[in-house]
Write a structure and sequence with these properties.
Layout: H1 10-17, E1 22-26, E2 32-33, E3 48-52, E4 56-65, E5 77-84, E6 89-95, E7 105-112, E8 118-124
Parallel strand pairs: 6-8
Antiparallel strand pairs: 1-2, 1-3, 4-5, 4-7, 5-6, 7-8
Length: 129
């Protein structure tokens, strides 16, 4: 899977090599955001740094993709918005497909990429976890 990186996202991708999930925090107002951007969405500040997050959250909304555009991502699969415990939201994949529901608890998992980076994906947390 070819996932591009640029100057703004390079450090975030480097963290994924160690399977560390991070979000940006604004040094001016404290706002947390994901995906990495050059400015804070809350105040427009540019003093942004990466901070680790727990990698837990809930499914906020989702859809099941039944026709894929990517050979290495066979259908069906779930594309979901996961609200992290810390607040930011991520657009991601969630598994297993038959357990996904709005409000279900999830935890981060990792899909290895060919270049050593890892793509954060989420799995449903079993009721007893």
């Amino acid at each position: 899977m070819n996932v591009p990186e640029d100057e703004t996202t390079r450090q975030w991708w480097d963290e994924t090599r160690a399977r560390r999930l991070t979000v940006q925090r604004c040094g001016s107002c404290g706002h947390l955001q994901h995906y990495p951007r050059p400015v804070c969405l809350s105040c427009g500040g540019q003093a942004l740094s990466l901070v680790p997050v727990a990698g837990t959250g809930v499914v906020e909304t989702f859809t099941v993709v039944r026709r894929t555009a990517y050979e290495d991502l066979p259908a069906p699969y779930v594309v979901a918005v996961v609200a992290l415990t810390e607040g930011p939201r991520l657009l991601t994949n969630v598994t297993p497909l038959d357990a996904v529901a709005i409000g279900r608890a999830v935890r981060v998992d990792w899909r290895p990429l060919d270049d050593g980076r890892n793509l954060p994906v989420f799995v449903i947390v079993a009721m007893e976890e």
